[in-house]
Amino acid sequence: MRTTIQRKVIIETLQKHKDHPGAEEIYTEVRSILPKISLGTVYRNLDLLAGSGLISRLDVGGAHAHYDPEPGSHPHFHCKECGSVSDLEWEDSFVVSKAVKRDSLANFSTDSVEILVRGVCASCRES
């Protein structure tokens, strides 16, 4: 894949986030650096980057996907109140991944393992 200025700025913008933003939020931030970029260009590049494994696209339900600069398999938390998505520091998730991979050898074929915990984040719980 060719590295364009748009892709470079999109990746750099996403890497500044810990909160797994949506395309519209990334677009707003990228536009402050590249004022002529379109929302469609941001969507196309995010899809291309996710398809090539450089970032992760998280479909947690709802109308919009979230994007993660870390493409490796790791668990996420999704707040059902505000819609935020964040990483979980959960070492036991790798035990689950190993079990799925072990069972998939005998029973099914696995492409990926995703662990998503849903609930209410601390900010929403306090308000």
Describe what you observe in this structure.
The protein has 127 residues and is of the alpha+beta class. Helices cover 42% and strands 13% of the residues. A hairpin with a 5-residue loop joins β3 and β4. It is globular, with a radius of gyration of 16 Å. The protein starts with a helix and ends with a helix.
Helix-strand layout with pairing:
Layout: H1 5-15, H2 23-31, H3 39-51, E1 56-58, E2 66-68, E3 76-79, E4 85-87, H4 93-107, E5 116-119, H5 122-126
Parallel strand pairs: 3-5
Antiparallel strand pairs: 1-2, 3-4
Helix pairs in contact: 1-2, 2-3
> Helix and strand string, N-terminal first?
HHHEEEEHEH
The fraction of residues assigned to DSSP E strands is 5-15%
- Spatially, the strands of the biggest sheet line up as 4-3-5
- Which parts are unreliable, with pLDDT below 50 for 5 consecutive residues or more? none
Distance between the termini: 45 Å
Shape: globular
Instruction: Write down how many β-strands occur, each being a DSSP E stretch of 2 or more residues.
Output: 5
Mean pLDDT: 88
